[in-house]
């Protein structure tokens, strides 16, 4: 049996606006509006969101330039701190150096981030879902592959309970069992998720095909013998793509490449 393992954010959905919305509110909840000069220190809501997007489109574009360096939820706090300080980052090395050099309540921010996401989903899961639109060609491709009997596992740094409702007929149009959604409880190193897949589904590492938008994750699991691919349609930077080329990691540049690539490989 061959298994297709897929990251969630940046592969199946474009979660830039979701992470901006929740990350901003979490920062305000943790440090207070007086400590924040981003977006006028105003909490985001479903009611003011359209106004916010129009008023602060430059700030949102700045946020987009920083999003590619995210590995976990606490990194969203780094983005808001960088924006507050009006700083830009151009490489993963630079981002990591900044992260390691500052004082920040990582535990507090992590808790606030997921608390805020849960609060918003409880208000309206549909409104939250609309903050992270799916990549349509990828979602259609997943549905076709599932229909052909391909085993698909979600390997994400997100939380299972936050995203599993999306994998239903009401939202994506197909169903993936919660047990097949491996989440952040395995840690930021996705090789632990790959080991779980091998143990649980009784396959070898070479039978797993893994698609992610973070080249660092692909390096981790590629060392195990997993066949790895970089999603080039979302957050991967030029630097990350160059690294992928050097390491001979195939890049799927367009979401339309998803289905034909894996249909061929998983036959």
- Here the CATH topology of the largest domain equals Rossmann fold
Compute the number of strand runs.
6
CATH architecture of the largest domain: 3-Layer(aba) Sandwich
Q: Determine and state the CATH class of the largest domain.
A: Alpha Beta
Radius of gyration: 18 Å
Q: Mean pLDDT score, rounded?
A: 93
Quickly count the helices: 13
N-to-C CA distance: 10 Å
Strand order of the largest sheet: 3-2-1-4-5-6
State the helical fraction.
40-55%
- The 3D shape can be described as globular
Largest sheet: 6 strands, parallel
Could you state the CATH homologous superfamily of the largest domain? HAD superfamily/HAD-like
What string, H for helix and E for strand, traces the elements in order? EHHHHHHHHEHEHEHEHEH
What's the number of domains?
2
Structure class = alpha/beta
Strand share of the residues? 5-15%
Structure description:
This protein has two domains: 3-14 and 133-265, HAD superfamily/HAD-like (Rossmann fold, 3-Layer(aba) Sandwich); 16-129, no CATH class. The protein is built from 13 helices and six strands. The protein is an alpha/beta fold and 267 residues long. Strands 3-2-1-4-5-6 form a six-stranded parallel β-sheet, with helices on both faces. Helix 11 (215-222) links the parallel strand 4 and strand 5 (227-231).
Protein topology:
Blueprint: E1 3-6, H1 16-31, H2 49-55, H3 57-66, H4 74-84, H5 92-101, H6 106-123, H7 125-129, H8 136-147, E2 151-155, H9 160-163, E3 181-182, H10 191-201, E4 208-212, H11 215-222, E5 227-231, H12 238-246, E6 251-252, H13 258-265
Parallel strand pairs: 1-2, 1-4, 2-3, 4-5, 5-6
Helix pairs in contact: 1-6, 8-13
